[in-house]
Predict the structure.
Amino acid sequence: MTLPASLWRRRVLPLALLALVVALSGCNGWFTQYTSTDGSQQLTRISCPTISTCFAVGETQNGNPLVEQTSDAGQTWKTLDSPQLDIAFSTPFIDCPDADHCVAVGGPEQIPGGTAHAIYTSDGGETWKNSIVSTTGDDPSGLWCVSDDRCLVTEEGNDTTNSQVDITTDGGATWTASPKIEPNGPGITAAAFGLSHIVCPSATECVAVAEEDYFTDTPPVPVEVAYDTFASSTDGGMTWHQMALPTGGGAVACPSSTHCLMASDQAVESLTTTDGGASWTITNEPVPGLDYSFSDISCPTTMECVAVQFFPSSNADAIYTSNDEGSTWDSQPIATAFKATDIELDSVSCPSPTSCWTVGSVPSSTGAGDGSIILHSLSGGVAWPSMSSISPAQGPVGGGTVLTISGAGFFGSPIVTFGSGPGTEAATNVIVLSPTELKATVPPCDCTPPPPEGLAVPVTVTISGLGLSPPNLNYEFTYLDS
Protein backbone atom coordinates (compact mmCIF):
# COMPACT_ATOMS: atom_id res chain seq x y z
CA MET A 1 0.00 0.00 0.00
CA THR A 2 1.31 3.44 -0.94
CA LEU A 3 0.74 6.15 1.65
CA PRO A 4 -1.10 9.34 0.62
CA ALA A 5 1.14 11.98 -0.82
CA SER A 6 0.22 14.29 2.04
CA LEU A 7 1.99 11.93 4.43
CA TRP A 8 5.13 11.56 2.35
CA ARG A 9 5.74 15.00 0.96
CA ARG A 10 8.95 16.58 2.04
CA ARG A 11 8.93 19.33 4.61
CA VAL A 12 12.26 21.03 4.00
CA LEU A 13 13.04 24.60 4.88
CA PRO A 14 13.44 26.73 1.75
CA LEU A 15 17.10 26.96 0.83
CA ALA A 16 17.13 30.73 1.16
CA LEU A 17 15.79 30.49 4.70
CA LEU A 18 18.18 27.66 5.49
CA ALA A 19 21.12 29.76 4.35
CA LEU A 20 19.99 32.54 6.66
CA VAL A 21 19.56 30.12 9.58
CA VAL A 22 23.02 28.66 9.02
CA ALA A 23 24.55 32.13 8.86
CA LEU A 24 22.98 33.03 12.21
CA SER A 25 23.30 29.64 13.87
CA GLY A 26 26.75 30.21 15.34
CA CYS A 27 25.25 32.76 17.73
CA ASN A 28 23.66 30.04 19.80
CA GLY A 29 25.01 26.65 18.79
CA TRP A 30 21.84 24.87 17.60
CA PHE A 31 19.52 25.69 14.71
CA THR A 32 16.47 24.13 13.10
CA GLN A 33 17.00 22.12 9.93
CA TYR A 34 13.63 20.42 9.57
CA THR A 35 10.12 20.76 10.97
CA SER A 36 6.78 19.07 10.35
CA THR A 37 3.82 20.38 12.31
CA ASP A 38 0.71 19.04 10.55
CA GLY A 39 0.47 16.00 12.84
CA SER A 40 1.01 13.47 10.05
CA GLN A 41 4.30 12.13 11.43
CA GLN A 42 6.49 11.95 14.50
CA LEU A 43 10.25 11.40 14.39
CA THR A 44 11.75 9.82 17.50
CA ARG A 45 15.32 8.64 16.78
CA ILE A 46 18.29 9.72 14.68
CA SER A 47 21.56 8.08 13.66
CA CYS A 48 24.32 9.96 11.83
CA PRO A 49 27.19 7.71 10.68
CA THR A 50 29.06 10.60 9.02
CA ILE A 51 29.09 14.40 9.15
CA SER A 52 27.03 14.50 5.94
CA THR A 53 24.70 11.51 6.30
CA CYS A 54 21.88 11.06 8.81
CA PHE A 55 18.80 8.85 9.04
CA ALA A 56 15.87 9.85 11.28
CA VAL A 57 13.14 7.34 12.02
CA GLY A 58 9.61 7.65 13.36
CA GLU A 59 6.10 6.67 12.50
CA THR A 60 3.38 8.11 10.32
CA GLN A 61 -0.08 9.02 11.54
CA ASN A 62 -1.35 5.55 10.61
CA GLY A 63 1.48 3.70 12.36
CA ASN A 64 3.83 2.86 9.49
CA PRO A 65 7.61 3.42 9.49
CA LEU A 66 8.84 6.88 8.51
CA VAL A 67 12.46 7.45 7.48
CA GLU A 68 13.94 10.86 6.68
CA GLN A 69 17.45 10.95 5.21
CA THR A 70 20.05 13.58 4.38
CA SER A 71 23.31 13.11 2.50
CA ASP A 72 24.32 16.79 2.39
CA ALA A 73 24.69 17.57 6.11
CA GLY A 74 21.04 18.47 6.45
CA GLN A 75 20.70 21.06 3.71
CA THR A 76 17.94 18.86 2.34
CA TRP A 77 15.96 15.99 3.86
CA LYS A 78 14.03 13.46 1.82
CA THR A 79 11.39 10.95 2.84
CA LEU A 80 12.40 7.40 1.94
CA ASP A 81 9.62 5.24 0.53
CA SER A 82 9.32 1.51 -0.05
CA PRO A 83 6.55 -1.12 -0.09
CA GLN A 84 8.55 -2.87 2.64
CA LEU A 85 7.70 0.01 4.98
CA ASP A 86 4.01 -0.91 4.99
CA ILE A 87 4.11 -2.61 8.42
CA ALA A 88 3.08 -1.76 11.99
CA PHE A 89 5.92 0.17 13.57
CA SER A 90 5.63 2.04 16.89
CA THR A 91 8.27 3.68 19.13
CA PRO A 92 11.09 2.87 16.69
CA PHE A 93 14.87 2.91 17.16
CA ILE A 94 17.55 3.21 14.46
CA ASP A 95 21.31 2.64 14.25
CA CYS A 96 23.50 3.10 11.18
CA PRO A 97 27.07 1.79 11.52
CA ASP A 98 27.99 3.42 8.19
CA ALA A 99 26.40 5.50 5.43
CA ASP A 100 25.19 2.40 3.55
CA HIS A 101 23.88 0.18 6.33
CA CYS A 102 21.01 0.98 8.69
CA VAL A 103 18.71 -1.08 10.86
CA ALA A 104 15.55 0.22 12.52
CA VAL A 105 13.19 -1.67 14.80
CA GLY A 106 9.64 -0.94 15.91
CA GLY A 107 7.14 -2.68 18.12
CA PRO A 108 3.55 -3.84 18.38
CA GLU A 109 2.67 -1.44 21.25
CA GLN A 110 2.62 -4.20 23.85
CA ILE A 111 0.02 -6.34 22.07
CA PRO A 112 0.23 -9.90 23.47
CA GLY A 113 1.60 -12.06 20.70
CA GLY A 114 2.25 -8.97 18.60
CA THR A 115 5.18 -8.75 16.22
CA ALA A 116 8.20 -6.49 16.48
CA HIS A 117 9.64 -5.72 13.03
CA ALA A 118 12.95 -4.56 11.65
CA ILE A 119 13.54 -2.57 8.48
CA TYR A 120 17.05 -2.56 7.05
CA THR A 121 19.05 -1.24 4.12
CA SER A 122 22.51 -1.93 2.72
CA ASP A 123 22.51 0.70 -0.05
CA GLY A 124 22.15 3.96 1.83
CA GLY A 125 18.36 3.84 1.97
CA GLU A 126 17.69 3.35 -1.72
CA THR A 127 15.90 0.09 -0.95
CA TRP A 128 14.56 -1.36 2.30
CA LYS A 129 13.59 -4.83 3.44
CA ASN A 130 11.72 -5.93 6.55
CA SER A 131 11.98 -8.86 8.90
CA ILE A 132 10.41 -10.19 12.10
CA VAL A 133 12.47 -9.53 15.21
CA SER A 134 10.23 -11.04 17.87
CA THR A 135 6.68 -12.23 18.51
CA THR A 136 6.70 -11.85 22.30
CA GLY A 137 4.45 -8.81 22.14
CA ASP A 138 7.14 -6.67 23.79
CA ASP A 139 8.23 -3.39 22.25
CA PRO A 140 11.91 -2.91 21.35
CA SER A 141 13.51 -0.67 23.97
CA GLY A 142 16.99 -0.22 22.54
CA LEU A 143 19.14 -0.95 19.48
CA TRP A 144 22.88 -1.07 18.92
CA CYS A 145 24.81 -2.17 15.82
CA VAL A 146 28.32 -3.38 16.55
CA SER A 147 29.05 -3.66 12.81
CA ASP A 148 27.18 -3.53 9.51
CA ASP A 149 25.94 -7.10 10.03
CA ARG A 150 25.67 -7.55 13.82
CA CYS A 151 23.00 -5.65 15.82
CA LEU A 152 21.34 -6.20 19.18
CA VAL A 153 17.81 -5.23 20.24
CA THR A 154 16.55 -5.12 23.82
CA GLU A 155 12.92 -5.82 24.75
CA GLU A 156 11.21 -3.91 27.51
CA GLY A 157 9.27 -6.87 28.93
CA ASN A 158 5.65 -6.97 30.06
CA ASP A 159 3.52 -8.46 32.80
CA THR A 160 3.91 -12.07 31.72
CA THR A 161 7.36 -12.44 30.22
CA ASN A 162 10.89 -11.58 31.15
CA SER A 163 13.19 -9.76 28.80
CA GLN A 164 15.42 -11.05 26.06
CA VAL A 165 17.96 -9.65 23.61
CA ASP A 166 17.41 -10.24 19.90
CA ILE A 167 20.55 -10.51 17.78
CA THR A 168 21.14 -10.38 14.03
CA THR A 169 24.38 -11.34 12.32
CA ASP A 170 23.22 -10.69 8.74
CA GLY A 171 22.34 -6.99 8.82
CA GLY A 172 18.76 -7.42 10.03
CA ALA A 173 17.49 -10.23 7.77
CA THR A 174 17.14 -12.82 10.55
CA TRP A 175 17.12 -12.61 14.34
CA THR A 176 17.99 -14.99 17.18
CA ALA A 177 16.79 -14.50 20.75
CA SER A 178 19.06 -14.79 23.75
CA PRO A 179 17.96 -16.89 26.73
CA LYS A 180 15.35 -15.12 28.84
CA ILE A 181 16.97 -12.75 31.31
CA GLU A 182 15.66 -13.36 34.80
CA PRO A 183 14.98 -10.44 37.16
CA ASN A 184 17.06 -10.33 40.33
CA GLY A 185 15.28 -7.65 42.36
CA PRO A 186 14.61 -8.16 46.07
CA GLY A 187 10.88 -8.77 45.56
CA ILE A 188 9.08 -12.08 45.75
CA THR A 189 7.31 -11.77 42.39
CA ALA A 190 8.33 -9.87 39.27
CA ALA A 191 5.46 -7.91 37.74
CA ALA A 192 7.45 -6.68 34.75
CA PHE A 193 11.07 -6.77 33.67
CA GLY A 194 13.00 -5.51 30.67
CA LEU A 195 16.26 -4.13 29.33
CA SER A 196 16.66 -0.81 27.56
CA HIS A 197 19.22 1.68 26.20
CA ILE A 198 21.73 -0.91 25.06
CA VAL A 199 25.31 0.08 24.10
CA CYS A 200 28.15 -2.24 23.07
CA PRO A 201 31.56 -0.52 23.36
CA SER A 202 33.24 -3.61 21.88
CA ALA A 203 32.29 -6.79 20.05
CA THR A 204 31.95 -8.70 23.33
CA GLU A 205 31.09 -6.03 25.91
CA CYS A 206 27.54 -4.66 26.15
CA VAL A 207 25.74 -2.63 28.80
CA ALA A 208 22.08 -1.78 29.34
CA VAL A 209 19.58 -0.61 31.91
CA ALA A 210 17.34 -3.24 33.49
CA GLU A 211 13.97 -2.03 34.71
CA GLU A 212 11.90 -4.22 37.00
CA ASP A 213 8.59 -3.87 38.82
CA TYR A 214 8.22 -6.36 41.64
CA PHE A 215 5.90 -7.11 44.57
CA THR A 216 7.21 -7.01 48.12
CA ASP A 217 6.09 -9.41 50.84
CA THR A 218 5.08 -6.51 53.09
CA PRO A 219 1.98 -7.38 55.15
CA PRO A 220 -0.95 -7.18 54.87
CA VAL A 221 -0.75 -7.06 51.04
CA PRO A 222 2.17 -7.05 48.59
CA VAL A 223 3.25 -3.63 47.34
CA GLU A 224 4.48 -3.02 43.80
CA VAL A 225 7.90 -1.29 43.69
CA ALA A 226 10.10 -0.12 40.82
CA TYR A 227 13.69 -1.36 40.83
CA ASP A 228 16.50 -0.43 38.40
CA THR A 229 19.73 -2.30 37.74
CA PHE A 230 22.74 -1.87 35.52
CA ALA A 231 23.16 -4.90 33.27
CA SER A 232 26.38 -5.92 31.56
CA SER A 233 27.41 -8.70 29.20
CA THR A 234 30.86 -10.00 28.30
CA ASP A 235 29.75 -12.47 25.62
CA GLY A 236 28.15 -10.15 23.07
CA GLY A 237 24.74 -9.94 24.71
CA MET A 238 23.84 -13.59 25.19
CA THR A 239 24.08 -13.62 29.00
CA TRP A 240 23.78 -10.70 31.42
CA HIS A 241 24.88 -9.79 34.93
CA GLN A 242 23.07 -7.17 37.00
CA MET A 243 23.93 -4.75 39.79
CA ALA A 244 21.65 -2.32 41.62
CA LEU A 245 21.57 1.35 40.65
CA PRO A 246 21.35 3.87 43.50
CA THR A 247 19.02 6.35 41.75
CA GLY A 248 17.52 4.57 38.75
CA GLY A 249 18.77 4.41 35.19
CA GLY A 250 18.12 5.85 31.75
CA ALA A 251 20.04 6.62 28.58
CA VAL A 252 23.50 5.05 28.22
CA ALA A 253 26.63 6.05 26.29
CA CYS A 254 30.14 4.62 26.45
CA PRO A 255 32.94 7.04 25.55
CA SER A 256 35.35 4.07 25.75
CA SER A 257 35.33 0.35 26.46
CA THR A 258 36.24 1.03 30.11
CA HIS A 259 33.96 3.99 30.81
CA CYS A 260 30.20 4.40 30.38
CA LEU A 261 27.70 7.09 31.34
CA MET A 262 24.15 6.34 32.42
CA ALA A 263 21.46 8.96 32.89
CA SER A 264 19.59 8.92 36.19
CA ASP A 265 17.27 11.29 38.04
CA GLN A 266 18.89 14.76 37.84
CA ALA A 267 22.30 13.14 37.55
CA VAL A 268 24.63 11.00 35.46
CA GLU A 269 26.11 7.76 36.76
CA SER A 270 29.75 7.30 35.75
CA LEU A 271 30.59 3.60 35.39
CA THR A 272 34.14 2.29 35.03
CA THR A 273 35.57 -1.19 34.57
CA THR A 274 39.09 -2.55 34.77
CA ASP A 275 38.33 -6.20 34.02
CA GLY A 276 36.74 -6.15 30.57
CA GLY A 277 33.22 -5.44 31.82
CA ALA A 278 32.97 -8.26 34.38
CA SER A 279 32.50 -5.71 37.19
CA TRP A 280 31.80 -1.98 37.32
CA THR A 281 32.28 0.89 39.76
CA ILE A 282 29.49 3.48 39.89
CA THR A 283 29.92 7.17 40.78
CA ASN A 284 26.95 9.55 40.93
CA GLU A 285 27.52 12.95 39.27
CA PRO A 286 24.62 15.42 39.85
CA VAL A 287 23.69 17.71 36.94
CA PRO A 288 22.61 21.16 38.27
CA GLY A 289 19.46 22.45 36.59
CA LEU A 290 18.45 19.09 35.10
CA ASP A 291 14.74 18.52 35.67
CA TYR A 292 14.41 14.79 35.15
CA SER A 293 16.75 12.51 33.25
CA PHE A 294 18.56 12.63 29.93
CA SER A 295 16.67 10.78 27.21
CA ASP A 296 19.80 10.19 25.12
CA ILE A 297 23.57 10.78 25.24
CA SER A 298 26.12 10.79 22.40
CA CYS A 299 29.89 10.92 22.97
CA PRO A 300 31.96 11.43 19.79
CA THR A 301 35.21 11.31 21.83
CA THR A 302 36.30 10.02 25.22
CA MET A 303 36.03 13.55 26.64
CA GLU A 304 33.13 15.22 24.81
CA CYS A 305 29.46 14.29 25.16
CA VAL A 306 26.09 15.83 24.24
CA ALA A 307 22.86 14.91 26.03
CA VAL A 308 19.20 15.80 25.55
CA GLN A 309 16.23 15.68 27.89
CA PHE A 310 12.62 14.98 27.06
CA PHE A 311 10.69 17.13 29.54
CA PRO A 312 12.47 20.46 30.13
CA SER A 313 10.68 22.93 32.41
CA SER A 314 10.52 26.68 32.00
CA ASN A 315 13.75 26.93 34.00
CA ALA A 316 15.77 24.29 32.16
CA ASP A 317 17.28 23.74 28.73
CA ALA A 318 16.79 20.62 26.63
CA ILE A 319 20.44 20.19 25.57
CA TYR A 320 23.56 19.78 27.71
CA THR A 321 27.24 19.35 26.82
CA SER A 322 30.27 18.00 28.69
CA ASN A 323 33.95 18.19 27.82
CA ASP A 324 35.33 16.30 30.84
CA GLU A 325 34.08 12.72 30.36
CA GLY A 326 30.63 13.54 31.74
CA SER A 327 31.80 14.83 35.13
CA THR A 328 30.24 18.27 34.62
CA TRP A 329 27.56 19.51 32.20
CA ASP A 330 26.61 22.90 30.75
CA SER A 331 23.13 23.65 29.43
CA GLN A 332 22.84 25.10 25.92
CA PRO A 333 20.14 27.34 24.40
CA ILE A 334 18.30 26.46 21.19
CA ALA A 335 17.37 28.82 18.34
CA THR A 336 13.89 27.86 17.15
CA ALA A 337 10.48 29.41 16.64
CA PHE A 338 9.14 27.20 19.47
CA LYS A 339 9.22 27.82 23.20
CA ALA A 340 11.88 25.79 25.00
CA THR A 341 9.21 24.00 27.03
CA ASP A 342 7.46 22.88 23.81
CA ILE A 343 10.48 20.97 22.50
CA GLU A 344 10.82 17.38 23.71
CA LEU A 345 14.02 15.80 22.44
CA ASP A 346 14.28 12.01 22.16
CA SER A 347 17.59 11.32 20.48
CA VAL A 348 21.00 12.85 19.70
CA SER A 349 23.78 11.70 17.37
CA CYS A 350 27.24 13.28 17.06
CA PRO A 351 29.37 11.74 14.28
CA SER A 352 32.24 14.12 15.11
CA PRO A 353 33.29 16.52 17.89
CA THR A 354 31.89 19.42 15.87
CA SER A 355 28.76 18.05 14.19
CA CYS A 356 25.65 16.92 16.10
CA TRP A 357 21.98 16.34 15.31
CA THR A 358 19.03 15.88 17.65
CA VAL A 359 15.43 14.95 16.91
CA GLY A 360 12.22 15.27 18.87
CA SER A 361 8.65 16.50 18.96
CA VAL A 362 7.01 19.92 18.87
CA PRO A 363 3.33 20.94 19.09
CA SER A 364 1.19 20.17 16.07
CA SER A 365 -0.35 23.09 14.24
CA THR A 366 -3.55 21.07 13.81
CA GLY A 367 -3.91 20.04 17.43
CA ALA A 368 -3.82 16.36 16.41
CA GLY A 369 -0.74 14.41 17.44
CA ASP A 370 2.73 15.92 17.62
CA GLY A 371 4.99 17.52 15.06
CA SER A 372 8.67 16.75 14.47
CA ILE A 373 11.85 18.80 14.64
CA ILE A 374 15.49 18.17 13.71
CA LEU A 375 18.16 20.45 15.17
CA HIS A 376 21.80 20.67 14.08
CA SER A 377 24.97 22.07 15.62
CA LEU A 378 28.25 22.79 13.87
CA SER A 379 30.04 23.65 17.11
CA GLY A 380 29.87 20.41 19.05
CA GLY A 381 26.64 21.51 20.66
CA VAL A 382 28.11 24.48 22.51
CA ALA A 383 26.59 27.95 22.18
CA TRP A 384 29.83 29.79 22.97
CA PRO A 385 33.46 28.90 23.68
CA SER A 386 34.24 28.06 27.28
CA MET A 387 37.38 27.52 29.32
CA SER A 388 37.97 24.89 32.00
CA SER A 389 41.68 25.52 32.70
CA ILE A 390 44.77 27.44 31.61
CA SER A 391 48.36 26.32 32.13
CA PRO A 392 50.68 27.81 33.18
CA ALA A 393 48.72 30.54 34.97
CA GLN A 394 51.62 32.97 35.27
CA GLY A 395 54.66 34.17 33.36
CA PRO A 396 57.04 37.07 32.72
CA VAL A 397 55.77 40.57 31.95
CA GLY A 398 57.61 40.46 28.65
CA GLY A 399 55.35 37.71 27.35
CA GLY A 400 56.47 34.67 25.39
CA THR A 401 54.90 32.05 27.67
CA VAL A 402 53.25 29.25 25.67
CA LEU A 403 49.82 28.78 27.25
CA THR A 404 47.59 25.72 26.98
CA ILE A 405 43.86 26.46 27.28
CA SER A 406 41.36 23.65 27.82
CA GLY A 407 37.63 24.08 27.34
CA ALA A 408 35.06 23.63 24.59
CA GLY A 409 33.97 25.25 21.35
CA PHE A 410 37.45 25.88 19.92
CA PHE A 411 37.10 26.03 16.11
CA GLY A 412 38.38 28.00 13.15
CA SER A 413 40.74 30.85 14.02
CA PRO A 414 40.19 31.81 17.66
CA ILE A 415 41.36 35.12 19.08
CA VAL A 416 42.85 34.88 22.58
CA THR A 417 43.09 38.17 24.50
CA PHE A 418 44.71 39.15 27.79
CA GLY A 419 43.35 42.03 29.87
CA SER A 420 40.30 44.21 29.40
CA GLY A 421 39.46 47.66 28.12
CA PRO A 422 42.16 49.77 26.42
CA GLY A 423 44.94 47.55 27.78
CA THR A 424 43.75 44.40 26.05
CA GLU A 425 46.47 42.52 24.15
CA ALA A 426 46.05 39.63 21.69
CA ALA A 427 48.04 36.41 21.88
CA THR A 428 50.12 35.24 18.95
CA ASN A 429 50.67 31.78 17.45
CA VAL A 430 47.18 30.55 18.37
CA ILE A 431 46.88 26.90 17.39
CA VAL A 432 43.70 24.81 17.77
CA LEU A 433 44.74 21.30 18.80
CA SER A 434 41.16 20.04 19.14
CA PRO A 435 37.69 21.44 19.88
CA THR A 436 38.65 21.25 23.56
CA GLU A 437 42.26 22.46 23.56
CA LEU A 438 44.36 25.23 22.04
CA LYS A 439 47.80 26.77 22.51
CA ALA A 440 48.73 30.45 22.39
CA THR A 441 51.79 32.61 23.05
CA VAL A 442 51.21 35.19 25.77
CA PRO A 443 51.72 38.81 24.57
CA PRO A 444 53.85 41.36 26.48
CA CYS A 445 52.00 43.22 29.22
CA ASP A 446 51.53 46.97 28.87
CA CYS A 447 51.97 47.26 32.59
CA THR A 448 55.71 47.67 33.24
CA PRO A 449 56.55 47.31 36.01
CA PRO A 450 53.81 45.10 37.50
CA PRO A 451 53.12 45.29 41.23
CA PRO A 452 55.24 43.03 43.49
CA GLU A 453 52.50 40.43 43.74
CA GLY A 454 52.10 40.42 39.96
CA LEU A 455 49.23 41.64 37.78
CA ALA A 456 46.35 39.22 37.11
CA VAL A 457 44.41 39.83 33.88
CA PRO A 458 41.40 37.96 32.47
CA VAL A 459 41.91 35.58 29.55
CA THR A 460 39.20 35.51 26.87
CA VAL A 461 38.70 33.27 23.83
CA THR A 462 36.65 34.64 20.92
CA ILE A 463 35.37 32.43 18.08
CA SER A 464 33.89 33.95 14.95
CA GLY A 465 30.15 33.20 15.00
CA LEU A 466 30.16 31.92 18.60
CA GLY A 467 31.22 35.13 20.33
CA LEU A 468 33.42 35.23 23.41
CA SER A 469 33.84 32.92 26.33
CA PRO A 470 31.86 33.92 29.42
CA PRO A 471 33.94 35.95 31.90
CA ASN A 472 35.33 33.82 34.69
CA LEU A 473 37.85 35.21 37.17
CA ASN A 474 39.13 31.70 37.83
CA TYR A 475 40.86 31.86 34.45
CA GLU A 476 43.33 34.67 34.76
CA PHE A 477 46.95 34.97 33.77
CA THR A 478 49.32 36.69 36.17
CA TYR A 479 52.20 38.76 34.77
CA LEU A 480 55.30 38.64 36.97
CA ASP A 481 58.25 41.03 37.00
CA SER A 482 60.88 39.18 34.96
In short: Confidence is low (pLDDT under 50) at residues 1-28.
